[in-house]
């Protein structure tokens, strides 16, 4: 299976640069994974596709202002650091640019020394580990010095940083937003709940595993980076009951999907647990946990296009994406939505 098999033509003007004024006013392409049938709706219509007794699963991770711009203490050279993974004891795995300038022992200073990062380990692909030094509470320091880590294809400045958070974001720790959830409003979630649909929250802190491009020709050779997830006992019980009672589990986003599939693959049931997942879902994978998926339109040749192709079939996905291009849907993080049923 070749990475190029998941390529498609995308005009640059369809890459959404800013969020819509109203979160739930985005368009919704509905794809039937069995028939390949496509229909065009609005995101508020998602309520019509959810039935009483179903469970909607949302990722409640919260994005940190993880992008930092600093200078090397020895040379004053400009360095960009993206915090990816908190390994405890103020050790963070980070993506750095330019990485070749960062060796073990290099110190980077941010905000005139309010935050310092000392390199403790050199890894592949621009990854470095740093020991962070600061006074006070780290997330308050990051709020002052850091920027929201918008993807590189977004060139516009974000006026309201909360628009890169879901309305239900709670558990701090992501280097990117679980963007499928950006379409939900409190009012829409209330309508869904009032219909008798259960709403469950799991956590997966989005890191390099989700957004790292595929650089190998053979899909099966791609290595996913691990990301941390948590599922509570109450949620596990709710999901097991949903399944037992013959109702549907609808994942919001690829991060929720990967968490649910990881747990089901490990234990054969949903259970209270936490850990690290590097699950890579591509065509040939048999889904064990989810029935339907709410997701955005993803980058060509990305692991996320591979995941949705595994769920709906590659031909169906490519047909749907070509239709979305023809109909001028907005793509990627601030773009429109897709419902795979």
What keywords describe this structure?
alpha/beta; QueA-like; nine-stranded mixed beta sheet; six-stranded antiparallel β-barrel; 17 strands; globular
Blueprint of the fold:
Blueprint: E1 27-31, E2 38-42, E3 55-59, E4 61-63, E5 67-72, E6 78-86, E7 91-97, E8 107-110, E9 115-122, E10 127-134, H1 138-145, E11 171-174, H2 186-194, E12 198-204, H3 208-211, E13 227-231, H4 233-244, E14 249-252, H5 254-267, E15 273-277, E16 292-296, H6 303-312, H7 314-326, E17 337-340
How does this structure look, described?
Helix 6 packs across helix 7 (314-326). This protein has two domains: 3-63 and 160-340, QueA-like; 67-145, Beta Barrel (Thrombin, subunit H), CATH 2.40.10. The protein is 21% helix and 28% strand. The radius of gyration is 20 Å and the shape is globular. A hairpin with a 4-residue loop joins strand 9 and strand 10. The longest helix is centred in the last third of the chain and has 14 residues, at 254-267. The protein is built from seven helices and 17 strands. The model has no long low-confidence stretch (mean pLDDT 95). It has a nine-stranded mixed beta sheet. The protein is of the alpha/beta class.
């Amino acid at each position: 299976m070749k990475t190029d098999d998941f390529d498609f033509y995308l005009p640059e003007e369809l890459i959404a640069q800013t969020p819509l004024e109203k979160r739930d006013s985005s368009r919704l392409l509905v794809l039937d994974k069995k028939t390949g049938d496509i229909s065009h709706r609005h995101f508020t219509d998602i309520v019509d596709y959810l039935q009483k007794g179903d469970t909607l699963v949302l990722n409640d991770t919260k994005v940190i202002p993880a992008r930092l711009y600093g200078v090397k203490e020895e040379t004053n050279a400009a360095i960009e650091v993206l915090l990816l993974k908190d390994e405890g004891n103020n050790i963070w795995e980070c993506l750095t640019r330019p990485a070749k300038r960062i060796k073990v022992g290099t110190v980077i200073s941010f905000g005139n020394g309010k935050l310092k990062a000392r390199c403790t380990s050199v890894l592949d692909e621009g990854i470095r580990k740093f020991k962070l030094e600061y006074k006070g509470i780290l997330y308050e320091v990051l709020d002052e010095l850091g920027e929201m880590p918008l993807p590189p294809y977004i060139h516009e400045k974000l006026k309201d940083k909360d628009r890169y958070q879901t309305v239900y974001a709670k558990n701090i720790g992501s280097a990117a937003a679980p963007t499928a959830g950006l379409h939900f409003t409190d009012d829409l979630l209330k309508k869904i709940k009032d219909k008798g649909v259960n709403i469950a929250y799991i956590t997966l802190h989005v890191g390099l595993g989700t957004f790292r491009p595929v650089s190998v020709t053979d899909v099966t050779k791609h290595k996913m980076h691990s990301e941390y997830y948590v599922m509570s006992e109450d949620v596990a019980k709710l999901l097991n009951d949903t399944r037992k009672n013959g109702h549907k589990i609808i994942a919001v986003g690829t991060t929720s999907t990967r968490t649910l599939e990881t747990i089901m693959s490990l234990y054969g049931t949903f259970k209270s647990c936490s850990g690290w997942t590097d699950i890579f879902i591509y065509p040939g994978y048999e889904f064990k946990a989810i029935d339907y998926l709410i997701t955005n339109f993803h980058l060509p040749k990305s692991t996320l296009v591979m995941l949705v192709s595994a769920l709906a079939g590659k031909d169906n996905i490519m047909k749907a994406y070509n239709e979305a291009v023809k109909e001028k849907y907005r793509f990627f993080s601030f773009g429109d939505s897709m419902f795979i049923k």
